């Protein structure tokens, strides 16, 4: 074997491969799985009722405008992107940029809540309630339940932003912000399904 070949076959230093880990708090992941199961049952029952009463559900959906829900979808996706950016900035120890990303996520979340509140108030003023019919019962139950989850997500992100003032999050210390991001992504995912099922699929 030539000298050049020997040089090429020299043992290279072992590369450090980070061990896989679940981001955030494990307890939050159990909570997220439980929440997804609850919403999953809601969506399943909604599908069954819709199959039994297609005309009623089609008539109810005809009263739902798509502009605000579409805007809300974009707001939540933008909020999720901000949470991803926040985790990345904290990992890079860029504290100010990370906290700014959290503020942006809360701003997008606030926009979602305001749009949703405007939509719900309009429905209540039109005399729609849980007892109007099965479609409106599901519409109000699902959207208000999800609305409350967005509120909780805002509280969690605000708490992370507040605690980040003392620099507790940084490289290797991301559990809190990853936990908040995981919850926010769950809220985003549920909305995407809800939006497709209740507003779009007709």
Can you describe this structure?
The protein is mainly alpha-helical and 202 residues long. The protein has seven helices and no strands. Helix 2 (26-52) runs parallel beside helix 7, helix 4 (67-91) runs antiparallel to helix 7 (175-200) and helix 5 (95-125) runs antiparallel to helix 6. The longest helix is centred in the middle third of the chain and has 31 residues, at 95-125. The model has no long low-confidence stretch (mean pLDDT 91).
SSE topology sketch:
Blueprint: H1 3-8, H2 26-52, H3 54-61, H4 67-91, H5 95-125, H6 134-163, H7 175-200
Helix pairs in contact: 2-6, 2-7, 4-5, 4-7, 5-6, 6-7
Rounded to an integer, what's the Rg over CA atoms? 23 Å
Helix content: over 70%
Query: CA-to-CA gap between the ends?
Result: 71 Å
Number of helices: 7
User: Based on the structure, what is the oligomeric state of the protein chains?
Assistant: single chain
- What global shape is seen? elongated
Overall number of strands = 0
Catalogue the unreliable spans: none
Quote the average pLDDT.
91
Specify the biggest β-sheet. Answer: none
- Estimate the strand proportion: under 5%
Given the helix and strand composition, which structural class is it? Answer: mainly alpha
Order of helices and strands: HHHHHHH
């Amino acid at each position: 074997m030539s000298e050049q070949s020997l040089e090429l076959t020299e043992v290279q230093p072992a590369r450090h491969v980070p061990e896989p880990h679940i981001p955030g708090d494990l307890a939050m992941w159990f909570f997220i799985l439980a929440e997804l199961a609850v919403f999953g049952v809601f969506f399943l029952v909604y599908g069954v009722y819709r199959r039994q009463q297609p005309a009623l559900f089609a008539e109810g959906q005809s009263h739902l405008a798509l502009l605000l829900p579409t805007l809300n979808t974009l707001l939540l996706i933008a909020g999720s992107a901000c949470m991803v950016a926040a985790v990345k900035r904290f990992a890079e120890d860029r504290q100010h940029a990370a906290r700014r990303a959290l503020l942006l996520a809360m701003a997008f979340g606030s926009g979602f809540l305001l749009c949703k509140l405007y939509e719900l108030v309009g429905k209540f003023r039109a005399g729609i309630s849980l007892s109007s019919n099965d479609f409106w019962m599901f519409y109000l139950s699902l959207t208000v339940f999800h609305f409350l989850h967005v509120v909780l997500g805002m509280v969690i992100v605000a708490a992370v932003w507040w605690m980040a003032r003392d620099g507790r999050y940084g490289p290797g210390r991301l559990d809190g912000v990853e936990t908040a991001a995981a919850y926010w992504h769950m809220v985003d995912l549920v909305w995407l399904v809800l939006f497709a099922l209740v507003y779009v699929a007709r």
